[in-house]
Amino acid sequence: MAPVRESLNGWIKFEYPAIRDGKEVTGVKLKFEKGKVVGFSADKNEDFLKDMLNAIYKRFDV
């Protein structure tokens, strides 16, 4: 049985870098509430992470 997407709450931290379009994002943390990302941070290239999340969610106008 698959988990209910809207029930996801908590944090996840990625120990390995994400690389997209030649940019490396490290130390990524995502906070979820009711299945949606409501917060984020990164040790490196946090602005690029924000841009990637905005492409999906269109709501991180920090």
What tags apply to this protein structure?
two-stranded antiparallel sheet, 19% helix, single chain, 1 helix, 62 residues, alpha+beta, globular, three-stranded antiparallel β-sheet
Number of discrete domains: 1
Radius of gyration: 12 Å
Helix content: 10-25%
Low-confidence stretches: none
Form type: globular
Structural class: alpha+beta
H/E element order: EEEEEH
Distance between the termini: 37 Å
Tell me the total number of β-strands. Answer: 5
Description:
The longest helix is centred in the C-terminal third of the chain and has 12 residues, at 46-57. The chain is 19% helix and 34% strand. It has 62 residues and is α+β, with helices and mostly antiparallel strands. The protein is globular. The mean pLDDT is 87. The chain has 1 helix and 5 strands, in the order E-E-E-E-E-H. The chain has a 3-stranded antiparallel sheet. A two-stranded antiparallel sheet has the order 2-3.
